[in-house]
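#struct-pred

JT: dropping the chains for the assembly here, can someone run the whole complex?
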Amino acid sequence: MSSLNSENTNRKLTYAQAINEALSQAMGLSPDVIVLGQLVDYKPGVFGTTTGLVERYGSDRVQDFPVAESVMTFTGIGAALAGMRPVLVHQRLDFMMYSLDAIVNWLSLWRFKSNGQSSIPLTIRAIVGKGWGQGPQHSKSLHAWFAHLPGLRVAVPSTAYDAKGLLLESIFGEDPTIIIENRSLFSMTDLVPNIPYRVRFGHGTTRRTGTDITLVAIGMMVPVALRAAMQLAAESISVEVIDLRSVSPIDQNIIFDSVRKTKRLAVVDPGWQSVGVAAEVITLVCERLGDILATNPVRICLPDSHTPMSATLEAKYYSNDVSVANTIRTLFLR
Amino acid sequence: MVKLSHEAILKMAQCHSVSISGMDRKVVVELYRFMLRLRRCEEALIKEYHPADEMRCPIHFCIGQESVPAALSLLLEMEDYLFSHHRSHGYFLAKGPPMKLLFAELYGRETGANGGKAGSQDISMASANFYSGAILAGAMAIAVGVGLGIQLKCRPSVAVAGFGEGASDEGVFWEAINYAALRRLPVVFICENNLYATYSHQMKRQPADNISGRVAAFGVKSRTLFGNDVVAVYSAVAEAINHARNGHGPFFLETYTYRWNGHVGPEDDSHVSYRPKSEEEFWRANCPIALIEKEMVAAGLLTPEVRSAIIDEIDKEISEAFRFAKKSPFPSETDWIKLNYSTASPLADRLLCDSALPEFDQDQAETIPEPY
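RK: done, full complex below.
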């Protein structure tokens, strides 16, 4: 479908409102779309993302699910098999760990083992907390784990615009998808068209153009990276910021094209450092363009530690625009 | 009445009797024919497994457990869904796909049910709504989700899941029972309780062997029965399917039965010494096929001529399936992305628009969560 310009109005919506609008429009577009998750039918609506849906679409399609994350995922798989387009909502990604068997042993390999006869168009929304002492059981971002699995698509949207477009693309696409949503972004606003539009997986975007270094950013680190780039611009370091949007698949070309120009690479990833997506991005670049790099690439990730509760430690645990700018600056010191 | 259990069954008369009186003769013959077909299919595969070593996948043979698949083969509609445990061959055949697609899959050929990607324990046939899997309770939990889809789409179908008693060791089993009961989903659960998870006896893993009793506590209609009486199994499965199909919610059947073979492969695993000889002998003496055969002969439904005609027909199908499998090409596709991901999204193409990306305002404060 081409874009409907006449009906296309951009309004400022928060990240949470954009998700809500995507769900509501998807349910309006197809009676097969259902939303399952704990507390999805109460007024707070999982931080505002499901508020109002049950009033519009009824309690069969918007189901407060038992605290049984494992069978919730299996239910989503089965319902998709019977022709539905289910969306599962995990208020905290950490609780979703009960459904790892469903995700790893069934969902991810379903299409493969059926030899392409059968696919599972299931969308799993998983929210990652940050701040106010969320601590080690409310703040894990496991996008690297899921990106490691063949058969899944994994997105980490950074803006309200992307949150809506990636969610719609996922609901009406054919592959199982995990969308990791950073809670710290939920109140940030962005211009969001009111039409049901798509953001494709594997299509990163250049959020800021620059010539001296490519800074690949993921999820909640995108605004941080952009602010760091602003600071560095004042010091005549021109940073190109690429938002990966989806970590499976990864848009390799947008990274390669940028690094060919800048010859430097840094990655800011809201996950742990070791064996993560940042390492994957750097490997991709080194394998293809290692000989043109002017400096060693650098990863800016979470330390290889669980999240502390205490605010003072929390502040040291997470990177911010100042610390990201400091790290990048060192690449230009001679 | 004595509560049915494996222990109680062993204490019963050495030979259980099956009653076919009042049964439609055609149904009896078809149940018998299916069981014999499945038995001879498994025996033929066992015979061919090692000499040639061309079936290079784990196979869990189901000799001794023919009753449930036989009943399902007569009672399921095309639109119904069937989920199987890893001992899958009977369930595959019960849903109707030709035997040769099973054999070609076991031989890892392009023409197999899944083009040689799945093998025996993961075989499926989407066009027949047939699926299986090896990680015990997962398949029955997916059946519950299918039940939700059927219910929301107001279809007259049911989802049936067969599994062993080992599946009820796993937590998601109980989550699935709870959710099916909560939503009154059209799902039939059939537990083929064969007493052992690989070598492990049920009473080493569970405090009581009567799973249906625990399931009944969720408000799910449940029945236990002697699983080698195919006539009783047929009647119970028919009742369960009607119950679910007519909107009365899930139904749980526990059929006490026994696998004759080792857990996996054609080898005898008795060197592990995990089950007593007398127990094996009891169950072999209560062969589901022999039990009904005896009644059919007595009722004049089966003569030696009829029996050999049935066997000839089955054996012809089996040799044709071997021939088909062995002459089929091996798969060659190695575009791994294509094998794991879809290449088109027709629904998204139809429903969604493209749109221009607006500029994002980076200077916004992060959300600080409230205490909740």
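JT: nice. The first strand of chain B starts at residue 81 and ends at 84. Residues 57 and 284 of chain B are 27 Å apart (CA to CA).
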